[in-house]
Each structure stands twice: as C-alpha cells, then as structure tokens.
Amino acid sequence: MTDTQTASTVAPEAPAPTREAAPGVVHGLYTEGEPIVDTKAPKGPIEARWNKRKFDAALVNPANRRKLTVIIVGTGLAGGAAAATLGEAGYNVKSFCYQDSPRRAHSIAAQGGINAAKNYKEDGDSTFRLFYDTVKGGDYRSRESNVYRLAEVSANIIDQCVAQGVPFAREYGGLLDNRSFGGVQVSRTFYARGQTGQQLLIGAYQALERQVAAGTVEMFSRHEMLEVVVVDGKARGIIARDLVTGEIETHLADAVVLASGGYGNVFFLSTNAMGSNVTATWRAHRKGAHFANPCYTQIHPTCIPVAGEHQSKLTLMSESLRNDGRIWVPKNAADCEKDPREIPEEDRDYYLERIYPSFGNLVPRDIASRQAKNVCDEGRGVGPKVGDFRRGVYLDFTDALKRMSAEAVAEKYGNLLDMYQRITGENPYEVPMRIYPAVHYTMGGLWVDYDLQSSIPGLFVAGEANFSDHGANRLGASALMQGLADGYFVLPNTIRDYLAKGPFPKLEESNEAVVEARASVDARVQKLLSINGDRSVDSFHKELGNIMWEYCGMERSEEGLLKAIDLIRGLRDEFWRNVKVLGSADTLNQSLEKAGRVADFLELGELMCIDALHRRESCGGHFRAESQTEDGEALRHDDEYAYVAAWEWGGQDGTPVLHKEDLVYEFVEMKQRSYK
Amino acid sequence: MNLTLKIWRQAGPKAKGEMVTYPVTDISEDMSFLEMLDVLNEQLNARGEEPIAFDSDCREGICGMCGLMISGKAHGPEVTTTCQLHMRSFSDGDEITIEPWRADAFPVIKDLVVDRSSFDRIIQAGGFISANTGSAPEAHSVPVPKPKADRSFMAAACIGCGACVAACPNASGMLFMGAKITHLGELPQGQPERDARVVSMVSQHDHEGFGGCTNVGACSAACPKEIPLDVINQLNKDLRGALMRGE
Fold it and tell me: Partner of B229 at 20 to 30 A CA spacing, among A61, A201, A281, A536?
C-alpha cells in the first residue's frame, strides 16, 4: 500500500520532455500500478467503526507526549484546530502559516454555515441522513466509513464551538438557529450571519493562541513550507522559508500534518485567497504521497461575475442566497441587454425551477453551475460582455423583498448584499444581482487512509488538502464541518496510533536526506531568481488559469484535455526559461513566493487534466461531455469508475502511475442522482 | 482614469523609507484598489523595478490581511477594507498617497507591509475561552439571550486588520481589545475568565507599545466592520471591576 519513494532531490526546473508511448503507457500519459486499499477503517456495523478505531488506536502516555514533536502546516479550520487540540493534549507542536497571523487562513472566508446532525428542528435529520446526503451529494465517489465518521462527529463540533464562544445565530429563546442549505431538505446548518467561517476560525485561532501562551505550540507565521523531509521512508520534517528574512529553515519532527487547503488557484481566478496554493501538498506528492482525484473541483454557482481583464480574484456570495433568491435569464437573447426590471414575468426563464421542479433553486452546486453555463452558452447570459460573451445570470430578490420585508432580508443576508453592492456598484435591493459560477473548492487532494495518513508514513493530511470525504462533489456547509472534524476530533485520535511508535531516532540536520531536501529548496529559489526572462509570474499564472478553465473547467472532453496537456507543457517549459522574478532571496519577496507556487500549479494542472481524461464518465463536479444522459445530466459509469484514482508521482521525466482504490457501498445504494 | 500615486517605499525593517511618485493610466473604475496596485506592479516588473510589497489575501474583506493608509485615511475614503475599495471612489486626475499603517506596535517590514504580531500576543494574553477539545457540554445546555448573542456577534466581527490603531492619533489598540472583551464577555461561557482576561490583555497591550485611549473615536470611524466605540466603554468597565475585585 505504501510504496513510498525514498527521498530524492530532483532538479525541479527541468521541463517535462515530450513523452513517447512506452509499453503499458495509456494515452502516452500514464501507467497503471497496483490497486491500493485503506487498511485502517474497521469492518462491521458502520455506526461502530469510529469507536472501534479510537479504541484500537494506540495511546501515548501523557508524560511522553511532550517528547513528541508534530509539525502542522496551515492554520485554517483543520490545521488550527489540530494544533490547538494536540497542544492541549501535551504534544510539542510547531504550527506554520504563510500569512502574517494564523487568524487569516482562508477558512475565514466561508460564509454560509456548518452542517451538524443535531436534529434540533425535529425534521427527520439524523447521523445516518447526514451521512446518506453527503454520500449521495458526492455522487457515490467517497468512502462510506469516512463520511459516516464525519456525520457522527458533526454534533460534537457544534458543542465545542459553542463552548469556545463562537457566536452562532440564535432564536429569541436563546437556542441555536438552523437553516437549510444547498442540496438537502432538512435544516441542519448552523450559521453566524454570513460570517460562519470567520467565527469558527476565530474560535480555533483563539484556542491555538491559548496553546501558544501555554508553550505547547510554537507559531511560525509568514513561513512557507517548501519541502517535506522524508528519512527512511518516514516524514520527519519540513524545509520552510521565512518569508520576511528569506532564510531557509529546517524543522524536524516525529510527524508532519499538512492542512494547507485546496488548489483552486490553479485556475488563477477562483474564490480562494490570493496566497492559497498547492505547494505543500505538491512537494509531498513529489516525495511519494499519492494525489487522489485531482480533477474533482467544485465550481460554485453564486459568485460575482468577472468584470474585466484586471480581475485578480472572484468573490463568492453564500449560496444561502439561493434559499430566497430566484435565478433566471431572459427567455429571448434579444432581452439580455435590457434593464431586468423591465422584462415581464412571462419573458423570464426561471430555468432551475423549470428543469428541477422539486429542488428548484436549491439543486446541488454542480448542477446549478452547469445550467448557468448552458444558458449563457445559448447566448442568454446577462451583464457586460467579457470577450465575446455575457457570463452572468440573475439572482433576484424581488419576490423575497415582497414576501419578507427589506429588514428581514437585511437581517439574513445584509452583509452579502452590501458586499455585492460594494464590488459592482449596483444596489441588489433594487436591481437583481448578477451571478456566475467560479472555482471554489477542490474535492481532490492527497490520498489518505481512514487515519488521515498519506502514502508516506508519518505524513498526515487534513481538511481540504486531503481527498477523503466529499467524493466528486461537496455539499454546502460541509467544508467547515470536515475541516473541524479532522482537526478537533479525527486527527488527534488517529495520529496517536502513529506517534505511539515514537519518539523516532533523533535526526541531525546533517542527515543526508535533510541536507538534500534543503539544498533542493535553495537551488530552486536561486533558479527562479536567475532566469530573468521577459514575462511576469502573474502572466504565466493567468495563462495557465485560462487553459484550465477552458478545458478542465465545468465541462471536459477528450479533445480539449489532450490539447490542454500540450499547452500546459509548453507553458511550463517557457516558465522555466522566461519568467522574470526581481528582487533577492534574503528579503520579503512576494514575486518569488508567487513564482514557486505557480511552478507547482504548472505541474498539478497537467495531472488534473490526465485525471480528468482517464475518468471517462461524468460524476459530481467532473462533467465529461462524452458521458451525459439524453437530458444533458451527468452520467456515471459505476461498473468502471467506482474507485478513487490515487496518482503516484512518476518522476520528473516519467509518467504518473495510477493506483485504484475500489469504493464499496454496503449501506447506501448507488443511484443515478435526480433532483427533478 | 489617470492617477498620480505617491507610495511609501522602504527596502527593509531598518532601511530608510521615502515617498515615490508613480503615475498610472487607464485605470478602470471597476478595479479594486489592490487590482490597481497589481497593474502598477506588473508595469514595474516589466521595466525591471522591484514591485511594491503590500499584504492582501482573501480580497473579499474578511481575512484582515490588507490595510493601507490611503490619502491619510485607514483603508481609504469608504468604510470598508482596502481590498473592497474600488476605483469608482476616485476621480480622474486624483493624487493618492499610499502609506503603511503607522504605529510603534506595527513596525514596517517592507514598503507597505507591517508586522501586526502584537495583536496575536494580545489574544495570547487572554483573548479566548478555555475549553479543551472534547470537554464541551451539549450546545443547547446553555441558552444565550438573543440580544446578548447579537451584541457578542457584532463585536466578534472584528477582522484584526489594525485600521483602528492606524487611525488613532495615539496608536491605541483599545477598539481591537474592546471588541474581544465584548465578544467573549457577553456570553455565559466567557464569564469564568472575564476578570483575568481583561487585566491580562490590557497589560499586554500596554507592553506592546500601543497608546492609551483618549476618546477620539477615529478608530470606530475607520473600522471596516463598524465596531462601535462603546466596546471601549465595556473594556474600561470590565477593567475597573476586575481591579476592584483584586484581579
């Protein structure tokens, strides 16, 4: 299972050569290796599995914990919660983030809410239903054991956050309020106006700072992890750059946790923060950690449309807006330039309500996004033209304002509507908002077993950085749930089974593998600064993003993906010849930071396309043009593709190796999704 | 529109800084302020000048990482974060000065980037509720009256950007601290540590070199999350009570 590569330093700057088809190489692009299995999830009744694993996982004597060092990269919900919890337990934790403070991790931007199977509304919710909804929402491409555990600990998360002082929305009686959220029919979403992520993250951040004060956690902000140290097949530390002084530092430990978030910024324009990147997980991938389902990306339907070429990022508005807003475009393309208020009711196409009468505007994200693309492709998009197209649909609050009152709408959605107005200069209380899908979340990530351990022993992966719980599509309000589940409750219970085997032999910085890892980081930094070409890092990033959005975005085809792979290779080759990074290595150098991240995106992008190409079915966020029903809905092929695609790095000049992990459904019957 | 930018350039923490003038042309009113700086940085990069360092991350007004003094105002002319400020707030021909936050407790790292770790250390001093993972009771076991929950939430909206400090003539961090005191102090869960929290946080605040509050109110006026000035009253009241009780 853990066919881990030994540590090696590969010259990162060499462009991938043109690959010639060798025997066993599919499409000339990849080879297939041995299947893999998750050996950690217990068998038996699904509701007993997590308790059994917690019991079977070895314990670490409290007196020994302080002798064990755990490095945690990333301070979002997963990383922050894990650092705080392991600190409380008495381990010696070193926590890293690239931002100036752990409180800024991008979890903070999540708006809508967090799911938990509390059944406070007595509307038929249960742990099993949350599990069922999540497996179904993920289009039957996630593991039952993992998802059940997620649903099981969800209730504990709410208790924990309330105890920390997270100010969730409450009813007049003083009890917690819930709302329903995209894709489900029960009200199980806890929220704090449109700032749920912020409030949950501040809770985790405060718990983390409490441990910093207690001396159990040492905080390294403005530090970026640039390499994993793998010694004798085990993850034993990281190489990080102090972003202020430029110093390359070696940090050694008994285990390493990556909680570094998703890779949506491979598309350049996404709702991710400017600094969100794949570097931590990609460097680990190159050292032997399998990357699972990289093509599973989520396009969020309710974002503010692109305004022009200068755009640096896209802003999401919580899809809770779909609870009360109605989505439409004009029936006739000729009306697209009109003031929407002058388009009469009978000339509007409320297309989601028309196509999906039972779920209407609350269909899952992938469906809402693709239908928006379809109506715009038909020429019925609204808003300004960017390029040749109008890319926008209306999200209309007129009915809600009549039904509720402006005050009630403001109470529920005020900050979102204000944000819209600030960005677009239009007043959503008077004019329907315009929205368009944008890349928002990546379900793929490093492959992990039930213990959240990657294919490198001692390297654990939590939160969005792993692939484990959302299958091919994530339901709304489930990212916060998974981040905190992993950080507070799962990882601290599973990592102890590994740590109980330690402390591991003391490592010296002079160890050969450590020296090599550090030298490779140094060499890469120097290389980036020495190319001194003609093009800025951003220009490469934008071009990569355009390729990915065009060919590996909402709809993918064999022809497009093959083209994208060629384009990416050419671009990567040019990057290493022609990028221009000014400044020096020994100060704050934001261009250099970006250059390293884009270099890794240029490699990841190719793997995403290969993954999308090999999966000749549509499922969740992955829509292959060749695999759709007569109605244009995603068509899965469970007989061929009910597996996790875990990719092993094939070396700088090699081809990636596909390892399949079969997905077995014992408790949920696989069905074709229908939201009609 | 065409603009003249006067921007603070400083090579490093100990280097001497200066204002440098950069004209920019063809700026769209739909650009955010930071996208306008992105455009300038691309131009600087193309002609071999090192781009201007400035902090930003989420660019949707919630992470608190961005923050510039724009023509003398923290986050510029609108009540919002720098990343959410759009160029439609300016006019063709404007001259705009751009400086980093200025406060002893926020030393400059480079150009427009400052070190705000003093805020983290104030939180370390007591800006939390001690509740180890796993020790929490059932969430509904402690109801919180909605007015208190709402006031707590209002204060918890603070994003820790530091505009309050930058706007204050005394470079005081009282609004930031008052927001945390109010967020946690309004909740039943926050009561056991309430006295110790306020004393410890105020002590750390003063130790970091922030100034005292003289009721100017510039902090609240500059706050992108509109934290009201009365959180400072709450802070003072809590501090007075805690000291009287011998904390």
Answer: A201
